[in-house]
Amino acid sequence: MAVVTAGVLALGAVACSSGGGDADADVKDDQRVGAMDDYGVGDQFRATEPISLSMLYRDHPDYPYQEDWLLVEEVARRANVTFDMTFAPLDGFEQRRSLLISGGDSPDVMPVAYGGQEIPFVASGALLPVSDYFDLMPNFSAKVAAWDLEEWLETLRQKDGKIYLLPGLMEFVRPDYTVTLRTDILAELGLDMPTSWDELADALAAMKAAYPDVTPMTDRYEAKLLLNNTAAATFGFPGAPSGYGGNRATWDEAAGEYVYTAARPEFREMLEYFNGLVKDGLLDPEAFTQDDDQAVNKFVSGQAFAITGNSQFMQGYRESMDETLGAGSYSIAKMPIPTGPAGDVMGGQPIDSGMMISADLAEQDTFVATMQFIDWLYYSDAGMEFATWGVEGTTFERDADGVRSFTPDVDFLGLNPDGDKNLRVDFGFFNGVFMLTQGGTEDLMNSMLPDDEREWREEMVQTKTTLPAPPPYPMDEIDLEQVALWQSALGDYADNNTLAFILGHRDLSEFDQFVSELEGKGMTAYIDKVNEAQRSFAEQNS
Q1: 46 Cβ contact partners less than 8 Å away, ≥ 6 residues apart
Q2: Of these four, 78, 212, 484, 517, which has the most CB atoms within 10 Å of its CB?
Q3: If DSSP codes are grouped into helix, strand and coil, which group holds residue 263?
Q4: What is the pLDDT of residue 24?
């Protein structure tokens, strides 16, 4: 099911109902131990008697869990809630979670879960159908309504009409990935910051002419960030969270149906563009095979002048380049998301990493209190600020205009380099286990960004159009298993040929032959099944 999780399911598992259940009518008095009687939007949740919440903690080696974190102590003080942690290492986290759920040993709450990852566990009844209990979560419900997220929430519904993954919510789609460029090299050559793929190719060609021994652009993560996170949407189809984006069904608005991405003419157009960069010596062929450290080292040492970047990568690049090139001897910036054949568009969605909840929680006497606590911590304005910035007066201060800044001894992301304590490592805040979307609100998502990054993000939101949610195509368990088999057979072949075309190991004149080869591996049957499910859903809900 892993291939399906990465592709179809995150967008396709949708069903008819769009509302939550009347949770207050369904829960019993013996499920309300510790719950507040009048809990509502904006209220500080505090359990009326102590409750313990079992949680799966993704133990990141850079900030391992500490019982004496300020976050943990403050949750106990404010909310009267303590944590009973089950630990899973970052490397192998999803496998560990799967084993716990399948074995019936899962904790009550399992954060850091993405849409589609819940699918293998729905049929067994191991997960709570959270949509039945949205009425217990007033902050969540209010934000879905205020931010017009109903359509995106629908993409998480399963065939039975219920949602089993509680998503992180964002006030707007958060653009982040694009190409990072050495702007000092651009200035040296008298070039403006490029704004389109064609302008980028011209800038790279000028760099190559001036520095013939340099391959101007490299990339990290086997160039999947470049193709999926940056390029795909601008060429007319959404990116994918794994592989090279070809092994999935994407909606073709002109045709009014789903098509296999790797067979689309838009996909070929993307291949032609990047093949041209490789052929002209502008894009490092090793970008598609090297490990991440090799890619970063090439960029920060001056062996390349362009690489994919996001807000957190930028900080790391600067710190490394201060050491390798010398502070003040270079400048870097993110180019606008390139304008492509599809126009001024960007990918992304306003729902993000969320959590699965064990079905067993609904049998516990603290069920209502736990749902109220989740609603406060992850979806209330106060809870999200707390998880993001920490405690006012201890980790951050607020000026007369409401602008937050770290206290003198606290740093994070280099925003207060004189601070000798790290917000996440030493206090536990800004941790994906306790926050779902880096804040959720526009204010919080922008609050920890340096000025140039905040201005870049605001420009993208104002000038780029987000691709809309595609129409849903819900499937039952048997169909999902069959789709997984087809995608498994197609996946490696699509990825291998994507690289072969880009690197010039296979001529693009053979693209039509490649499409025929995909048909022989089940592409047509897979797409027919997707379109059948889409049409069935549309007819039932017309």
Answers
A1: 36, 78, 79, 80
A2: 484
A3: helix
A4: 59
